[in-house]
From TrEMBL:
Annotated organism of origin: Pseudokineococcus marinus
Gene3D superfamilies per UniProt: P-loop containing nucleotide triphosphate hydrolases (3.40.50.300)
Annotated GO CC locations: cytosol; ribosome
Designated name of the protein: RNA helicase
Lineage: Bacteria, Bacillati, Actinomycetota, Actinomycetes, Kineosporiales
GO molecular function annotation: ATP binding; hydrolase activity; RNA helicase activity; RNA strand annealing activity
Amino acid sequence: MARNTPTPGRRERSAATPRRERPVWCGAPERPARVRPRPTTRRPPPMSAETAETSTGAPGDVEDVAVETLEAPAPEAAALVPTFVEHGVQQAIADALAAKGIERPFPIQAMTLPVALSGHDIIGQAKTGTGKTLGFGIPAIQRASGPGEEGFEALAEPGAPQALVVVPTRELAVQVSGDLTAAAARRSVRVLTIYGGRAYEPQVEALEKGVEIVVGTPGRLLDLAGQGHLRLGHARTVVLDEADEMLDLGFLPDVEKLLAMTPAGRQTMLFSATMPGPVVALARRYMTQPTHIRASEPDDAGAVVKAIRQVVYRAHAMDKVEVLARILQAEGRGLTIVFARTKRTAAKVADDLVERGFAAGALHGDLGQGAREQALRAFRSGKVDVLVATDVAARGIDVTDVTHVVNYQCPEDDKTYVHRIGRTGRAGQTGIAVTFVDWDDVPRWGLIDRTLGLGHPEPVETYSTSAHLFSDLDIPEGTTGRLPRSRRTRAGLAAEELEDLGETGRGGREGGDLARAGDGADPSRDAPQRRWRRAARAGVERHALPAA
């Protein structure tokens, strides 16, 4: 029987459905003596809809699915971890990693590699920044055969994808693909990134030439699979990265369609920071006796919060940019991410900062894909040192050397707060998180504070001239809301080339409100049309519009 086809007798029944001759008992305290024993090679019965909806995502829920749970060692024990080769990694892959300065695996990698290299299914519970990408990427590369390598010509369909990695956002797809490409640098294994916002033709052409590993977002993957360009019948390894984020974005139905296109004997690895009920149910349906690997203790969110110095201010809307401009001139400030709740706010704050002399870029869903990638490249390279982003656009982004995070608007909940401030204070480095709370958001902040035990129940009322602002964040006295010309040393966003991606203008599947054609990539090109639309609403004739 095909692995992905649920047994009819094993489906959950409603209360009105007559009991079958051989009932299925899911989690009952006592089992009747005449129930047919479940073979050890079969996976557990699927979770019912009611259980999935009420599941809290506690580790016990995962342990009901997994046959074993492993805890990754503490970070301070990383020096005792054996080398990649000692974990069974091919020498060519280890050499490629060494060329990038990666000599030994991180704790999550050390726990994942032995299990993954043996072909077993894995549920990895780890957040972004723990090194999980190589934990699933190395086994995917090692199991694949590239052109000219042993076993390639013997494949049923040489050049068809042998591994599929599904991620929730375009930015994460680029990031994961880059890590896999670096690890496969001394192999002939080809890695292709597939996501929306780019032209179809280059992706179709690459698939026709042949690739071994595909990294992509659900919407574009389904599009190309539906058109017959992406054939997943030989994908022996499937990875679902950031599964909880895909759930939040509504992608799980698309993920299930993709899984149905893969062979029954595949290896499936699922990684998620949290394990909500629907993700656990997905693991029940599509994984066989997985091993649960946890990169940190269940109170990891609290550990992240405590590792970062946090300051909370009750700031006034008309003074926020002034306060922010002074924070950005604090001593020792490096790369900084400013989080906003809306696309409009992100765009406005970025524009205000640029006007004040800061090297800033925006990252939000109304930008074209080319502009989004331009902003990320400029931020990573240091051409801009301030990135103003929305939560959706910044999901999964892993940038090193971020010293400050500023919540320009109060986060929606504690999970969003931890995700935001977790962009700093990584790999043992220090970080500072500053949160602005409006009057209307004080109750919301109080709930976040109580949930995480932050000890900041009453945000301090703060203005751009408040003495404690300067002392709290080591801002030099006399600092104003504009960056002095002598300190404007960064090249800025314009110095980063805007790549022509042949953008499709189709949004909505990858991340909800995503890129729209090339208009967002070059705002000046769209300015005449915007002026015309505004004038048309005001009843002005088109020929009466002033020149651009």
